[in-house]
Protein backbone atom coordinates (compact mmCIF):
# COMPACT_ATOMS: atom_id res chain seq x y z
CA UNK A 1 0.00 0.00 0.00
CA UNK A 2 1.31 3.44 -0.91
CA UNK A 3 1.93 5.95 1.83
CA UNK A 4 -0.10 9.21 1.54
CA UNK A 5 3.00 11.18 0.48
CA UNK A 6 3.57 8.71 -2.37
CA UNK A 7 -0.02 8.50 -3.62
CA UNK A 8 -0.46 9.90 -7.11
CA UNK A 9 -3.64 11.57 -8.30
CA UNK A 10 -4.76 12.68 -11.74
CA UNK A 11 -7.41 14.97 -13.19
CA UNK A 12 -8.13 16.68 -16.48
CA UNK A 13 -9.15 20.28 -16.96
CA UNK A 14 -10.56 22.68 -19.55
CA UNK A 15 -10.44 26.46 -19.21
CA UNK A 16 -12.82 28.89 -20.91
CA UNK A 17 -12.56 32.67 -21.42
CA UNK A 18 -9.56 34.69 -22.58
CA UNK A 19 -7.14 31.82 -22.18
CA UNK A 20 -5.16 31.69 -25.44
CA UNK A 21 -2.34 34.06 -26.35
CA UNK A 22 -1.91 35.20 -22.74
CA UNK A 23 1.03 32.98 -21.59
CA UNK A 24 -1.35 30.67 -19.70
CA UNK A 25 0.18 27.44 -21.02
CA UNK A 26 3.74 28.54 -20.20
CA UNK A 27 2.85 29.71 -16.70
CA UNK A 28 0.84 26.54 -16.05
CA UNK A 29 3.86 24.46 -17.10
CA UNK A 30 6.20 26.55 -14.94
CA UNK A 31 3.99 26.29 -11.84
CA UNK A 32 3.41 22.57 -12.38
CA UNK A 33 7.15 21.95 -12.77
CA UNK A 34 7.90 23.97 -9.63
CA UNK A 35 5.35 21.86 -7.72
CA UNK A 36 6.49 18.49 -9.13
CA UNK A 37 3.20 18.01 -11.01
CA UNK A 38 3.38 16.12 -14.28
CA UNK A 39 1.04 16.20 -17.28
CA UNK A 40 0.37 18.51 -20.18
CA UNK A 41 -1.48 21.61 -21.38
CA UNK A 42 -2.57 22.70 -24.87
CA UNK A 43 -4.72 25.16 -26.80
CA UNK A 44 -7.80 23.75 -28.54
CA UNK A 45 -9.44 24.72 -31.81
CA UNK A 46 -12.48 25.80 -29.77
CA UNK A 47 -10.51 28.60 -28.07
CA UNK A 48 -10.13 26.79 -24.76
CA UNK A 49 -7.11 25.37 -22.96
CA UNK A 50 -7.12 21.70 -21.93
CA UNK A 51 -4.73 19.66 -19.88
CA UNK A 52 -3.99 16.84 -17.50
CA UNK A 53 -2.45 17.03 -14.01
CA UNK A 54 -0.66 14.24 -12.11
CA UNK A 55 0.93 14.48 -8.68
CA UNK A 56 0.29 14.30 -4.97
CA UNK A 57 -3.20 15.37 -3.97
CA UNK A 58 -2.09 18.63 -2.27
CA UNK A 59 -0.05 19.66 -5.34
CA UNK A 60 -2.79 18.74 -7.84
CA UNK A 61 -5.29 20.69 -5.74
CA UNK A 62 -2.92 23.67 -5.61
CA UNK A 63 -2.71 23.74 -9.43
CA UNK A 64 -6.49 23.37 -9.72
CA UNK A 65 -6.99 26.30 -7.34
CA UNK A 66 -4.56 28.45 -9.34
CA UNK A 67 -6.23 27.54 -12.65
CA UNK A 68 -9.70 28.24 -11.25
CA UNK A 69 -8.90 31.50 -9.46
CA UNK A 70 -5.84 33.09 -11.04
CA UNK A 71 -4.24 31.81 -14.23
CA UNK A 72 -1.72 34.03 -15.97
CA UNK A 73 -1.92 37.79 -15.32
CA UNK A 74 -3.40 38.53 -18.78
CA UNK A 75 -5.88 35.66 -18.80
CA UNK A 76 -9.54 35.98 -17.89
CA UNK A 77 -10.80 32.56 -16.84
CA UNK A 78 -14.58 32.65 -17.10
CA UNK A 79 -15.05 28.97 -16.31
CA UNK A 80 -12.88 26.00 -15.38
CA UNK A 81 -14.06 22.42 -15.65
CA UNK A 82 -12.24 19.54 -13.98
CA UNK A 83 -12.70 15.80 -14.31
CA UNK A 84 -12.98 13.95 -11.01
CA UNK A 85 -9.61 13.60 -9.30
CA UNK A 86 -8.69 9.91 -9.16
CA UNK A 87 -5.87 7.99 -7.55
CA UNK A 88 -3.59 6.27 -10.07
CA UNK A 89 -0.98 3.57 -9.47
CA UNK A 90 1.85 5.23 -11.41
CA UNK A 91 2.65 8.31 -13.43
CA UNK A 92 1.65 8.40 -17.10
CA UNK A 93 3.96 11.35 -17.84
CA UNK A 94 7.63 11.96 -17.11
CA UNK A 95 7.28 15.76 -16.86
CA UNK A 96 4.82 18.59 -17.53
CA UNK A 97 4.77 19.71 -21.16
CA UNK A 98 3.06 22.07 -23.54
CA UNK A 99 1.42 20.16 -26.36
CA UNK A 100 0.94 21.58 -29.84
CA UNK A 101 -1.47 20.68 -32.63
CA UNK A 102 -0.15 18.47 -35.37
CA UNK A 103 -1.45 20.45 -38.30
CA UNK A 104 -0.77 18.62 -41.52
CA UNK A 105 -0.20 20.50 -44.75
CA UNK A 106 -3.09 20.47 -47.20
CA UNK A 107 -2.79 17.73 -49.79
CA UNK A 108 -2.15 18.91 -53.32
CA UNK A 109 -4.52 17.81 -56.04
CA UNK A 110 -2.87 15.70 -58.68
Write structural notes for this entry.
By secondary structure, the protein is α+β, with helices and mostly antiparallel strands. The chain has one domain (about 10-100): Alpha-Beta Plaits (2-Layer Sandwich). About 20% of the residues lie in helices and about 35% in strands. It has 2 helices and 6 strands; from the N terminus they run βαββαβββ. Strands 1, 2, 3, 4, 5 and 6 form a 6-stranded mixed beta sheet that branches. The longest helix is centred in the middle third of the chain and has 13 residues, at about 55-70. The protein is globular. The model has no long low-confidence stretch (mean pLDDT about 90). This is acylphosphatase. InterPro entries: Acylphosphatase, Acylphosphatase-like_dom, Acylphosphatase-like_dom_sf, Acylphosphatase_CS. Its EC number is 3.6.1.7.
The SSE string, one letter per element, is: EHEEHEEE
Q: Helix/strand/pairing class, anyone? A: alpha+beta
Question: What is the approximate shape?
Answer: globular
CATH-derived topology: Alpha-Beta Plaits
Show unreliable segments: none
Output the radius of gyration: 15 Å
Q: Any idea what the CATH architecture is?
A: 2-Layer Sandwich
Concise synopsis of the structure shown:
Keywords: Hydrolase. The protein has 110 residues and is an alpha+beta fold.
Topology at a glance:
Blueprint: E1 8-18, H1 24-34, E2 38-43, E3 49-55, H2 57-69, E4 76-82, E5 86-88, E6 96-98
Parallel strand pairs: 2-6
Antiparallel strand pairs: 1-3, 1-4, 1-5, 2-3
Keywords for this structure?
6 strands; six-stranded mixed β-sheet; 2 helices; Alpha-Beta Plaits
Amino acid sequence: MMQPAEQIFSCGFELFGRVQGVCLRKQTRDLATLNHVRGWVMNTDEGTVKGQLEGTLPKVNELKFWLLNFGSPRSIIERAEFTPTKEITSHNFSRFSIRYHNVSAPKKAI
